[in-house]
Amino acid sequence: MRIEFSNYKINPVSFYFVRHGETDWNVIKRITGQTDVPLNSQGLKQAHKVGEILQTLEIKSIFTSTLQRAKQTAEIIQTYINSPLEENPGLMDSKLGIIEGNTDRSKLYEWENGKQLTDAESLDDFNLRITNTINEILLSPGPILVVSHSGVWRHLNQILNGSIPRIPNATPILCRPYYLKPDYYIWETILL
After folding, report:
1. pLDDT tens for residues 27-59?
2. Other C-beta atoms within 10 Å of 181: how many?
3. 2 or 81, higher pLDDT
4. Per mean pLDDT, which range of 2-6, 68-72, 125-129 is the poorest?
5. How far apart (Å, rounded) are the C-alpha atoms in residues 104 and 30?
6. Which of 146, 168, 150, 148 is nearest to 13 (CA)?
7. How confident is the model at residue 5 (pLDDT cuts 50, 70, 90)?
8. Is the Cβ–Cβ distance between 149 and 139 less than 8 Å?
9. Burial (CB count <10 Å: 0-12, 13-18, 19+), residue 161
10. 50 to 43, 88, 125: CA distances (angstroms)
11. What is the DSSP string of 130-187?
12. What angle do CA 8, 111, 23 make, to 5 degrees?
């Protein structure tokens, strides 16, 4: 079963997105999901580097997942941009149940194609949660920064651009609507 992403829409408001810094599980390609692992020393350095990149952008609001790898990244970035930080559980990565902690990605690919896994959030529920959370956040004063996870980015990028590439840790991205006509737009995603 393939998910129809045209059913999901993101409000046409520009925002910045950052995937959290590196963790030890990222290094060994362990499926993390909602397992709460911290940043490693490289991830802490990456978060500082992103803070330096973003400090001139006048970001008004920061929203982060409640998982510590994203929260640590956001807290470090906040020291550079001095904007309010709000934790939002709707920005957590997908709950992947029995495959969290594994390095065999075959079950993850099955889940990404709509197969329900034991003790896991369904792909439909995850997509709906992320879409609703982002749209709610985009009602806040901007420019807005979202600090979250690769799975969240992959869902967003599927909606915005029709593709699901993975992004490296601590990669800042500008997401903005580009209007072709007053009532018709496409999304641009620009690596900073």
Report:
1. 999 999 999 999 999 999 999 999 999 999 999
2. 6
3. 81
4. 2-6
5. 8
6. 146
7. low
8. no
9. middle
10. 10, 20, 30
11. HHHHHHHHTTSSSSEEEEE-HHHHHHHHHHHHS------TT-EEEEEEEEEETTEEEE
12. 95
Indicate the residue type of 119.
D
Provide CB contacts within 8 A for 84, sequence distance 6+: 61, 62
Give the integer Cα–Cα distance in Å for 178 and 47.
29
Sole residue written with tokens 């397992």: 35
Q: What is the C-alpha to C-alpha distance for residues 100 and 93, in angstroms, rounded to an integer?
A: 11
CB–CB of 50/169 below 8 Å?
no
User: What is the per-residue pLDDT across 92-131, written as a single tens digit (0 to 9) for each?
Assistant: 999 999 999 999 999 999 998 889 999 999 999 999 999 9
pLDDT at 3 over 60: no
Cα–Cα distance, 38 to 43 (Å, whole number): 9
Give dist(CA 17, CA 138) in Å, integer: 12
Residue 4 has pLDDT above 70, yes or no: no
Q: Which of 184, 180, 169, 153 is nearest to 15 (CA)?
A: 153
> Locate tokens 């993390």: which residue?
32
Gap between the Cα atoms of 63 and 51, Å rounded:
14
- 8 Å CB contact between 80 and 54: yes
> Between these two residues, 10 and 6, which has the higher pLDDT value?
10
The answer to whether residues 92 and 63 touch, using CB atoms and an 8 Å cutoff, is no
How confident is the model over 15-22, as a mean pLDDT?
98
